[in-house]
């Protein structure tokens, strides 16, 4: 692969898509093999044109908002070196 980046790895995830309260959600559950920062990670994503925050499903426990957190970008999640990923994330915040 001519464009393979040796500093990054493939990130595997299972995606579950569902509708709840007329809102579309994607639930990504990261799988092995995975970089340490992805182990046990589950991200919920939704898209809306509404100005208000969407109502989140009551059956899920949300620990925090990561929408604008560069640590959770696919670029950083796929980085093989934890320190480099954290440094990159801190530089763009």
Write the layout of secondary structure elements.
Elements: E1 12-20, E2 23-31, E3 42-46, H1 74-77, H2 82-91
Antiparallel strand pairs: 1-2, 2-3
GO molecular function: GTP binding; phosphatidic acid binding; phosphatidylinositol binding
InterPro entries: CYTH-like_dom_sf, TRPL-trafficking_regulator
How would you characterize the overall build of this protein?
GO terms for molecular function: GTP binding; phosphatidic acid binding; phosphatidylinositol binding. InterPro entries: CYTH-like_dom_sf, TRPL-trafficking_regulator. The protein is an alpha+beta fold and 93 residues long. It has one domain (12-91). It contains two helices and three strands; from the N terminus they run βββαα. The chain has helices at 74-77, 82-91; strands spanning 12-20, 23-31, 42-46. The protein has a three-stranded antiparallel sheet with strand order 1-2-3, with no helix packed on it. Strand 1 (12-20) and strand 2 form a beta hairpin. It is elongated. The mean pLDDT is 83.
